[in-house]
Each structure stands twice: as C-alpha cells, then as structure tokens.
Amino acid sequence: xxxxxxxxxxxxxxxxxxxxxxxxxxxxxxxxxxxxxxxxxxxxxxxxxxxxxxxxxxxxxxxxxxxxxxxxxxxxxxxxxxxxxxxxxxxxxxxxxxxxxxxxxxxxxxxxxxxxxxxxxxxxxxxxxxxxxxxxxxxxxxxxxxxxxxxxxxxxxxxxxxxxxxxxxxxxxxxxxxxxxxxxxxxxxxxxxxxxxxxxxxxxxxxxxxxxxxxxxxxxxxxxxxxxxxxxxxxxxxxxxxxxxxxxxxxxxxxxxxxxxxxxxxxxxxxxxxxxxxxxxxxxxxxxxxxxxxxxxxxxxxxxxxxxxxxxxxxxxxxxxxxxxxxxxxxxxxxxxxxxxxxxxxxxxxxxxxxxxxxxxxxxxxxxxxxxxxxxxxxxxxxxxxxxxxxxxxxxxxxxxxxxxxxxxxxxxxxxxxxxxxxxxxxxxxxxxxxxxxxxxxxxxxxxx
Length: 449
Known about the structure:
The chain has helices at residues 75-78, 118-129, 134-150, 165-172, 190-197, 223-236, 248-256, 260-268, 282-288, 306-314, 323-329, 336-341, 361-371, 377-384, 386-392, and strands at 41-49, 57-65, 68-74, 85-89, 94-97, 99-104, 153-160, 175-182, 209-215, 241-244, 297-300, 318-321, 346-348, 410-414, 433-439, 442-446. By secondary structure, the protein is of the alpha/beta class. Strands 1, 2, 3, 4, 5, 14, 15 and 16 form an 8-stranded mixed beta sheet that branches.
C-alpha cells in the first residue's frame, strides 16, 4: 500500500521464470560501522543453523572474512587452528539468513494511520504525509531501516514517493532496491510525470543498493503511464513492481469506475479523466492493456483466481503477499495455497508501518502460516529469504541464504524458553525474538538485555 503523493550500472532483475516516532531498541541498531577486515576471520556459532541452501546444522558454525562466508558446517570441522579468528557464540539460538522484506515503504515508518476501508485509509495517509518536509521523510526512513534490522531484515524491496529512503539505506548499510513510485490516472502531463518519477542518479547504483520503478496500481495509474514507466525500465534495466488486485474496492473500480476508490479520488482532488472501466479483473486489465509482461513483481493479489494466476505465471511474475496488511485493512487474504499449486513463486512483505503492526517478516510468516496450514517451516523460510532475494535480483550475491562465497548476512533468532532441542518452527513462534542481525559481516543490530 502506498500514499498517492505523486508530487549506475544497469541492474537486470532475475525473473524467476523457472517455476509519533518511537525509538528503536537495541545496541548498534542500524549504525554505520567500519567494514570487516579482509584479513581477520570471524567464527559465528549457534545451536542450530538453517542455511536454506543446504540442510540444517546442529552445533554449527559460520566462518566469514571480509563480509563474505568462507565456510559453514559443524563447529569442529569449521574451526581451524593457526588462523586469526574472532569468535561469537550465540548459544541457544537459530541462525538463519538475513531476511528479505520484498515489499515495504520505508519512508512511511513514522506514519500511524488507524484501520479503515481502503479508500478512507489512503485519503487519511495522504493527508498525513502530504505536507511532510524532506527531513521528516528522512527521519521516518531512519526509523524504518533500524527497526528492519531489529527484525532480522538485511534486504528490502522499498517503494518510495519522496526518494528520501535511499540515502538512509545507503548510510546504514541496508541492501535493496528503491522503486520510485509513478502514478496518475489522467494522461495530462504524462511525460513530465514519468521524468519526475524516474530514478535520478543511476550512477549511485551499487551491488547492494539499486534503482527500480513502481507504477502504483491499476486504480491510480493509467495504462499509458504504465507503458511509459515500463518502457523506461526496459531501457535502463530497472526492475519493476506494482500493487495489484489488493481489495474488493479495486475490483469494483476497474469494473464499474465507482465505489470507495472513486470517492477517494474525489476527496483528494485527483483526476480520473480518461479512465474507462472494463468488466474484467485487475490482472486481466493489465494483460489486455499490454503492460503485464513488463512487470517483475505483483504485490498483494488478494482478489485473484485461477485465471489470474495463469496470466501471472505465464509472464514469470512473482507475487509478494502481505497478510497482516490485508487483515489491517479488512481485505480477504490471497489464496496462497492455490497460487503455489498454480506454480507462482511467492515471497513476503510487511507493507508499511502505516498498515501493519510491525516490520517483522517472521511475524508476517506466522500470520500466513495460520491462514495456510499446508505450508511447512522450510517453505516459509524460503519465502522470507531466497525467494525475495531472487525476485529482487540479489540471489547471485548469496542474499537469502548462508552459503560459501555469499554475503555474510544472517540473523540469530532466540526461541522462547522451553525444550533444548531447537527446530526451525521455533523462529515462527510468537515468543521468538531476534538477538543479533549481521550484514556484510557487520553487526547492524544487537538486542539490549
């Protein structure tokens, strides 16, 4: 969900065709630190390590150097005599890859909007943030990055209208893509809208922080604007994402052109001139408009069916689910089980703090598991890690897994007290908490005891 405040090297997405402001708690939470020495090796030990890319390891250890993983396995095999090693024993914890929040709005982390029907909620959010000066977006973004590290997240797919979140992500060492938001139903001034909303200085793109484009949603972005934005994305190698089929109100607006979202446009004074309702689903609307094939990731997709899933799967589009945002706004949740059977690759996002209780991806996964008991803990962890990393284009860097040669990104999760024989399911328990988050071998968050 995003507000309607529409005011490098080329990076190519890896399309998975194969298938007010509370203080963040904790020490070293999102602070900038010196990069790890390329000579000093670090040994990180935990009672259970779940690398995702390989089987779990009990009494395991990860050896890192220069921000990369050198080796992992049983502690006795990894520990090498004669090497300079700094050690950290997490004890009774489960070490998992750094989590990947595939859809969030970092810059809205300071906004608190009460639950309401979607049209009213968006109008409230716009009124709240419309007058924010740049420094307020920066402060809100800083809160979002630090609380993300606190939740074990090391990589995000961030949607930004202001563009301010990128600076904070860079300063604090958060990996990810900043998707610049594009919206407007009226075709008037379209060229200017696209120009103003495209990423500006793409030379700033790095292996860790990249640019992308996000046409907002079918109810807020004209098909011609979709085409212009996606054309620019193709020319520059930018990944693309859109909000799609989020609510019953969106379906109604696409089919009939009226309802709560039409009222929202009227309340905000946003023009709908030129929009013609079509008796079809939002997914079909984009497909018939010739823009579905330009998208890499579709977010929400709560109001979709088998025909929609076939269209998405046929274009190799991944789907990001945000179950707690759906509950917050009273939307029926997507049929995750049906999507999996249809061959769609699923990842998870928290959406913004304006529409979710927290930025905890583990809590998001627990909510999805409650709604879809067919899921197993291994599939949930993949949705929180490697699936999101792949669709955001970070899979080749080893993001979303703990693997030799990959980035040293991981989180130590402490399960609630109880049995000593830890299992992966424990990280999704309501009492579990992140003790430490490491990115590129640097401790970004340390829980204060």
